[in-house]
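Inputs:
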Amino acid sequence: MLGLTNKIGKIYVYTSTLISAAVVFLIFTILLLNSWSAISNVGLDLINLSWNPSKGEFGIISMLFGTFVVTFIALVISIPLGVFTAIFTSEILASKYRFFVKSILELLAGIPSIIYGLIGIAFLSIWFQDLFDLQSGRTLLTAGILLSVMILPTIITLTDDAFHNIPNKYRETAKGLGLYNSEIIKEVLVPIAKADVKSAILLAFGRALGETMAVMLVIGSIDKLPNPIYNWLSPGQTITSKLGREIAETSFGSIHFSAMIFMGLLLFSVVLLLTIIAQNSSKKTERLYE
Amino acid sequence: MNRKLKNNLFTYATWIAVITCAAILLFLFGVILWNGLPAINFNFLTEAASDFGASGGIIHQITGSVLLVIFSALICLPIAIGTAIYKSEYVKSKKLHTLINTLIYSLNGIPSLIFGIFGLILFVNILGMGVSWIVGSIILAMMILPTVTLSTYHSINSIPTVYRESSMALGLTKWQTISKVLLPQGFSGAITGLLIGVARAIGETAPIMFIATAFSGVAFPSSLLEPVSTLPTHILALAQQATNPAALQNAWGTSLVLVSLVVLFSITALCIRLKHQAISKR
């Protein structure tokens, strides 16, 4: 009887692990199978400028470009802002307030993305409209700025951990040598924390790529490259906003549907790669903290 | 430039960054409270939505959201506990452990929209379940699986080895050790993880918007295969008619209710974690 429950327990544990492990593969397989008809029928024409399902044109370049621009803007703003704030919370702020700051950051990270979208529609896009005298404030830049606010908590909290995990002896030794605070941070702490900060940025990058709701509401959803190409105050489209807006209205099994899933597969692969690189790059620092 | 000046410039830079972040934070919470509070009253919380959400309340959205996340928690919990036990107690080879870790972190990193598309293809179309709330619960359960698994794993794994050795020495089988000694102590980790996961799941729109929800004319579902209406998708629908002030007002009210639920779950999780830490330190 005891042997039996032991066995049942073991079976339960193995089965649930198999289920957890299988989910990622299952998602990948489903995406690959369903994007196959686009890959085989449209092929290299997927890398094209015009997206027009009624004419059978499925060029995804403008979506890729939009995704790239929006993520780029978000990272350019949030990396310096986030890293400097993290240096403040970890190195300058007294450690008794750390718990408070961490809790606030967790709350901030918990605000659902749809609410950022609502704030983007109700405030940010209207400000942009007035500020730059545009027809509509829903632009690539609006989406990028909104996105930078959304990934800020991720960058701050992970970078703060990276700095906070450095043992105090490094700081004390550097201080004993007569270095200023900024020099300690720049010359001693940053080199040690670098790998972890890099993985924090990669994770934030992945999150920015996959963010849907807020971007979808403020980007304007037009499948065209901006004209001229550096005019980021014009509406655009990202992979996520395209999928979010159109997938429900596309008939299952058509080439149109398949081309959309192909974009999803691209997004999935890139984000997965980023996550795995981030996970591996943060491990290398373990040696330092003996 | 001398060293002192550089040091001062650096300090100013960090202060500017912090003040900017604090201003953003104040703005976000300020806007949600300032716009949300006037919209909320007893009727708003207890009435059904009417006039495409522009008037009436959000009772069905609240029940729909809660229903979705409760069932996702129920689906997720047994699988997460099993995986955590395997990770902590059964797996022996280091390579296999790394592989499972990578898979769990990958699952955690997958964009929420991809889960929605996956659900749309597999459950709604291939398995023919249609747009139904149980599909939404299954998909949300997949999304929160890594959070719950890792939290459970950490609390089981941090139990000192001496507990395992003592119970083995008493002649307990491996499963008895796990179910009688380790799980009761590790359970708080599972609950913490579950609450954090649920706090995340209840705010998600992208994974459920085409597989589990309908906008208008939805009451409490009477079977597994019916759509529900949820708080985030309600906000989405209202945000798209942002020119109508009444709809926008209700969108802010719904947002405040949603944020309150998220905060409630997060704070409960925090309290359980703190309480557990206080005990384990003694």
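The first helix of chain A runs from residue 2 to 41. Flag for discussion at group meeting.
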